[in-house]
Here is the input.
Amino acid sequence: MPDSTVSTVFEDLPNGGTAAIVTIDNPPVNAGSAKVRQDLLDAFEALSKATDLKGVVLTGANGNFVAGSDIKEFGSEPVAPHLPEVIAAIEAFDKPVIAAIDGAALGGGYELALGCDGRIASPQSMVGLPEVTLGLIPGAGGTFRLPRLVGVAKAIELITGGIRVKSAEALDLGMVDAISNQNPVADALQYIADGAEKNLLRQRTLPQPDEEGVAAAEKAALKAARGAIAVMAAIDAIKSADAAADIALTAERNTSLHLRRQPQAQALQHLFFAERAAAKPPAGSQAKKIQKVGIVGGGRMGTGIALAFAGHGFTTVLVEPIAEVVESAKAAISSQASYMLKRGRITATEQLTGNISFGAIPDLANCDLIIEAITEDMTAKKALFAEIDRVVSKDAILASNTSYLDLNEMGGAVSDPSRFAGLHFFNPANIMKLVEVIRADKTAPDVIATLLRLCRKLGKVPVIARVGDGFIGNRIFAAYRAQCEFLLEEGCLPHDVDEAMRAFGMAMGPFEVFDLAGLDIAWANRQRLAATRPDNARYVSIPDQLCEQGRFGRKTGKGWYDYQSGKAQPDPEVHELVLAASHEKGIERRAFTHEEIQRRLLSAIINEACHVLDERVAERPADVDLTLVYGYGFPSLKGGPLHWAAHQPQDDISAGIDELIAASGPTAKAAPNISAVLDASKRP
Here is the structure.
């Protein structure tokens, strides 16, 4: 079959007869494309004419079964033949078809395996139905067949969570029938030789649902969904799995096709493609291998970075000269190791703690990467890098975790600035997905390629930024923060603003975020910039007054809110400061609706994002979307601020920007390229 993505070979069985091995070969990951689907139909049509055939083994090349749908088909109408037709052909085939799974069988790939008569997996395989992460539900029988293996409650958990399940757990759950000790294809052949028979899931009785378990799974899924219509649709489809097969499968397919055209699916798929583009290394670059990592600074951020690396198997050295900080870091690491052990993320505490050692600067000599995470002070950072530069290998990469400072100036402290870059983690570093990879003027492309690949190994979403105060995220967040503070002077209280932005879909209100991050960090940055602040710039002193009182947020028990009860409580003392600030400036306070608050703050984000793009601090509008979603809790269901804005009436966006500039004082400027940026954001 020339140019076919599917090949068929025959194997003689020891007890007589033959078995066919049908191999899907669509590199690099065996994505399920229209060509693959047609070739599978052709292969089974040809096999229907074979004589003395006892069964078929369906498998994949390239280290995967089928890793999901072909992304080239996203955003367009489905192309025939459709996956349900392929699965129907396999079910109608008069001999048993056994899926031999190696690597990933995800989405349509796992649905294909569910359409077979048995599933044998390799130890390194992974299965799952993660369609909801793209705003969809399984569309080829996943919501109908999986409940017949794991029950309705577990199916709700797995499908609505988009969970990828490793082979050992998949066997325990019944998602696969066996794990091969050596070769799943060989074991599948032996299974056929031993007399395997047709065993269709669509004909299997649905296990009696545990009503309490189903209700609990549904409640948990809806709470985590945060308004995701795909999650709600998946629950409905799974709970309807007791219907007749043709009715349930048709309903599932129709729902899946309907969701493809919805804004949430478009938003999530926008982020999917944005992640792929952001992680692409510079042309012609070559990433180097990183095995041993050194982190200097044992505070909360340095400890979090160490946990991120050690938790992914990197040998990690944490350097911290202050004994009290070392003890605090050790306690945090031990606590996190226990947490991960309980959650099954590691199999022994030593896997995490054993990868982290504490040392001094000379212990960094054999590290491939050194990350600085000390206080935000340029003089201290430059002195540290000069010291590190004298100790480490000339091939080691040096990176700063600075949130704001000029990396071009900082890189001047090392003998070879081409190996120096920024690697800005977000707090807590072992949990937050975003990492800004900062390209200084002299950073070598190979260094950027190495850091991008490293971030992906850590399970992070990397975004390249160029040097600029606050880079992408903190630069935009500072503009957002300023407008939040302006709103306080004009009539809002912190909880008013937080309620409005949570109603928009933000994971947390802005003042809750400020308290979580620590008010002292932004205070230090304001002090750093005070000398360059224009005299006529609008400035709100309320947060400075809070910091002067030692109210730094959650870590001190008080910030914008009072946390002494364990929960954020509005604080009358803060309200008095807010009212006094308005009175002092002669500002007549007024009530704001949620919509007015949202318009002001979203306009601030959009305008500053366009400034960031105009100055080439960010490379693409989609990089801004990734940064705000994964670093600052912008709702992923809206695809990020620029994707969202591009799909709003442009007159509304323009009016919001005009209101923003009018309210922000004489130094405020509208970005010059807003229409062009939003036009670019609208294009797929």
User: Anything to note?
Assistant: The first helix runs from residue 34 to 47. The radius of gyration is 28 Å.
